[in-house]
Amino acid sequence: MFPSALTTSSGGGLGTVGTRWFREVDQKGHKRTEVQSHLVNVWRFYLESLHDLNDKLQKRPYQTRLNVFVGQPTAILPALFSRWNVSKLTFQATQVSYESKQHDEIIQRMAMEHSVVCASFFAHTLYNPNDILTCNNGRVPVSYKEFRRLLPIVGCPQEPIPEPNPLSLLLSYVAPGTSIAEGEIPTLQSLGFAPNEKLYTNHWVGGETEALSRLSKFGSHRTSLSDDPIEWLMNKDSLSPYIRFGCLSVRQLFSQLRQFAFTSVKGQALFEELTKNLLLREFAFHVGYFTPNFDQMKGNALCIQLPWDDNEQYLEAWRQGQTGFPWIDAIIRQCRQEGWAHFLARQSIAVFSTRGYMWLSWVLGKDFFQEFMLDFEQPLSSVCWMQSSCSGFFCNQIESYNPCVIGKQMDMEGQYIKTYVPELQDFPVEYIHQPWKAPQYIQEEAGCIIGVDYPKPVVDVCNQEELCCKRIQAIMTALYEMYGTNQ
To answer: Is the model's pLDDT at 171 over the cut of 60?
Structure first.
């Protein structure tokens, strides 16, 4: 979403200059003057990350600053090449999609035209995707099992690169006042958000400083959690937003988890569990990097072309957390308010909106995540949504996700629901998951009339579940024809 670059000037004794660029519009095409308020969590986190980086660059031994430019790199970089007398451009290779490779190629050609040496690096994943491809004789592994079989051939992930030696930086010391100071970090208001929106007002604070603080406590905190599902639902120690925005290197996370594995049996179990998650992410980035239109259904060779329904009423109720199913609505509202939810909660709303009950396209759900989720990564989210909707990347057994049953299993006392669906705050526990079944006097005592203060269920669970199950049978046949039975 936000390409980054580091430029180096060749003249006047000027050292390395950190730059960032990002697009004039957001990911859904809204102009900056028309940014919708629900996007604020993502932008807040990103701006906080830039401020944290800038603060570090201004201290010794770096003593430089971050220059931020808003707009298209193809329009901004040529002017900077000339004005700053740039000799070298380095940047992280874009890995989010097959189409993103074209962006990097354009930047590289443009740099060559201005006699600027250009170097890009794959730093957002554990492995270089081209190395995986080479080990598989130039063929993209399209199943997770096939991908895992290649990893022993590729070898262990590289260790994270340490920070530059302070002594070497001091030897190239730049006198204060000589560093380039042009592009300032934007404010939320300059990006089109309301005057009352401020930084550092969310639980999730962007930046490497916060990321490293969380990482230092991550292993001990995770292994101390109980088996109570509500503790996991309410837990907010995740590192995924920091990996998405480059505040934390995925290689650094893997390296620290591997070290933590030697501390205890629980540490080993945590390492094994999270390594599976990291490798699933790795697979998603790999297959997404080589597959055109991977984030869409149309033109995606790895996605079953299902005849999804087009129901605006269902979609709007789901997006707003007004489905009438408290477990589903609580998850949606947490996503909207905080930009995060536990993966089991995400799976519940994904199944519910697609093959479970609403029969809406997985692309609509993926787009929702792209708008709201702090840790949204296009390849991984696309794989998860295809998997949950039975559009691809899943095994033989298809689990049922009845929103009332799974809600009771995960949130027995309704604590999670009451946190994010305050209309039901005073509902008794026995009706919290199915409030429409509460007698009228119970609803009145709770101060919440179903159909007035909180919606009735937008779908009939029994009828829709039966209909969707019949459709799933046809999907299974199609998937076997595409992938075979051993994926």
So the answer is: no
221: which residues sit within 8 A by CB, 6+ positions away?
Answer: 237
Cis peptide before 326 (omega within 30 of 0): no
Contacts of 271 (CB under 8 A, 6+ apart): 257, 258, 260, 261
What is the per-residue pLDDT across 427-459, written as a single tens digit (0 to 9) for each? 999 999 999 999 999 999 999 999 999 999 999
- What's the count of helices (H) and strands (E) in the chain, helices before strands? 20, 5
Helix (H), strand (E) at residue 406 = helix 403-410
Instruction: Return the closest-CA partner of residue 403 out of 323, 478, 475.
Output: 323
- Cα separation, 50 vs 65, in Å, equals 11
Q: What's the rounded Cα separation, in Å, for the pair 341 and 348?
A: 11
Ordered DSSP codes for 150-185: HHHHH-SPPPPPPPPPHHHHHHT---TT-S---PPP
The CA–CA distances, whole Å, from 5 to 61, 178, 242, 313, 344 equal 20, 21, 18, 43, 36
pLDDT of residue 27: 45
Give the integer Cα–Cα distance in Å for 477 and 108: 45
CA distance 373 to 214: 19
What was the pLDDT predicted at 168? 66
Q: What is the DSSP string of 320-378?
A: HT-SS-HHHHHHHHHHHHHS---HHHHHHHHHIIIIITT-B-HHHHHHHHHHH-TT--H
CA-CA distances (angstroms) from residue 103 to 72, 91, 109, 228, 370?
Answer: 11, 12, 10, 46, 20
Token pair, residue 132, equals 């995986």
Say how far apart CA 174 and CA 138 lie, in whole Å: 46
Nearest one of 419, 451, 465 to 324, comparing CA atoms: 451
Pick from 193, 461, 422, 458: nearest CA to 319: 458
